[in-house]
Structures are given as C-alpha cells and as structure tokens.
Specification:
Blueprint lengths: L5 H15 L2 H23 L3 H13 L13
C-alpha cells in the first residue's frame, strides 16, 4: 500500500474521476486537446488553423521509417 500523501491522494482522485467517465467523454477530451494544440501552434507561428494542422502533420511524419509490411512485395 502506498504511503498517504497529497500527491497520492490527488492521483487516486483523478483515476476515480476518469473511471467514472464514458469512453465517449474521454475521446471528446482527447480531440479537444488536439484542437487546442493546433490553435496554440497557429497563434505562435502566425498561420491559420488549416496551415498549422498541415505543418504539425508534416512534422509528425518527418523522420518516420516506413513499415516493412507496407513495402513492395518481393
């Protein structure tokens, strides 16, 4: 059992709150976080939302190695 502390109490409380939520609520929160990130990136770089989303997508793809499964068949 964990030693009682403020941090452990808060962590337990947050876990219980999350478990009470439906999967749809959790997915909606994840999408909202993504939208806020795009807005923040757009403001910081002086571009529109669409351009910011494209730039973020390009950065995510940069440096990725294609899967061997996706390569041409031999």
């Amino acid at each position: 059992m964990r030693k009682p502390s403020v941090a452990n109490g808060l962590r337990d409380e947050l876990v219980l709150q999350d478990l009470r939520r439906t999967p749809e609520e959790r997915v909606a929160d994840a999408f909202a976080l993504g939208a806020r990130d795009v807005e923040a990136y757009a403001r910081a770089n002086g571009v529109g939302r669409l351009k910011a989303a494209q730039m973020i997508q390009a950065m995510r793809a940069m440096g990725r190695k294609p899967s061997r499964c996706a390569g041409p068949s031999r």
